[in-house]
Design a protein that fits this description.
Blueprint: H1 3-12, E1 20-21, H2 22-28, H3 35-44, E2 56-57, H4 74-81, E3 86-89, E4 92-95, H5 97-100, H6 106-120, H7 124-127, E5 136-138, E6 145-147
Parallel strand pairs: 1-2
Antiparallel strand pairs: 3-4, 5-6
C-alpha cells in the first residue's frame, strides 16, 4: 500500500472535535519523517474526497491549510463548529494542541497497522524491508508519551 492510501485511512479516522498534526499522520502511517508529504497530499487531493482537512494543523497548532479551502477562514469556522477554540496570534490562527490534539495511543498505532496489513498486505510493501516500530505514542489519552520497550524496536 502506498503512503497516500495509508494517509487517507488515518485522516478519515480523525475524531470529531480534535485536531492532528501533519507529523502525527505520518507517524501513524509508519513514515514519521514524511509530514511534508502529508501536506503535499492534502494540497494536491491525493488523499481522495471526504478528508476532514480542517482538522489537520502544523506542529505549532497553527492553521496552515488555507489552500485547501474556499475562503481563508473556512478552516477556522469548521473547527469552531466542532467546538475547537481558535485564537488569532501574530503568526496566524491557532488552536491549543494540549487541549484539542488527538492523543494517539499505542492501540491506535496497532489498529492502523492491522488495517494496513489486512487491506494491503503489510508494511514490507511500503518499506521493502523489516521496519522499526514508531517510538512515541500517547497511552490511554494521557499527555505522557509512551515509549516502546527496546525489545520491540
Amino acid at each position: 500500500m502506498d503512503f497516500y492510501k495509508r494517509a487517507s485511512i488515518v485522516c478519515q479516522n480523525i475524531p470529531y472535535g480534535t485536531v492532528v498534526t501533519y507529523g502525527q499522520i505520518a507517524l501513524l502511517c509508519q513514515k514519521p519523517k514524511n509530514s511534508r508529504q502529508v501536506g503535499y497530499a492534502l494540497r494536491t487531493g491525493k488523499l481522495g474526497p471526504n478528508i476532514p482537512a480542517h482538522r489537520i494543523l502544523n506542529a505549532s497548532g497553527i492553521l496552515s491549510g488555507a489552500t485547501s479551502f474556499e475562503t481563508y477562514d473556512q478552516q477556522k469556522i469548521l473547527l469552531e463548529s466542532e467546538g475547537v477554540t481558535v485564537i488569532r496570534t501574530d503568526k496566524g490562527w491557532k488552536t491549543d494542541l494540549k487541549k484539542y490534539q488527538w492523543k494517539t495511543t499505542l492501540d491506535d498505532a496497532l489498529y492502523f497497522e492491522s488495517v494496513f496489513n489486512r487491506l494491503y498486505g503489510g508494511v514490507e510493501e511500503l518499506y521493502g524491508a523489516k521496519l522499526k516500530a514508531p517510538t512515541v505514542f500517547y497511552k490511554d489519552n494521557d499527555a505522557t508519551p509512551y515509549q516502546y520497550p527496546d525489545d520491540l524496536q
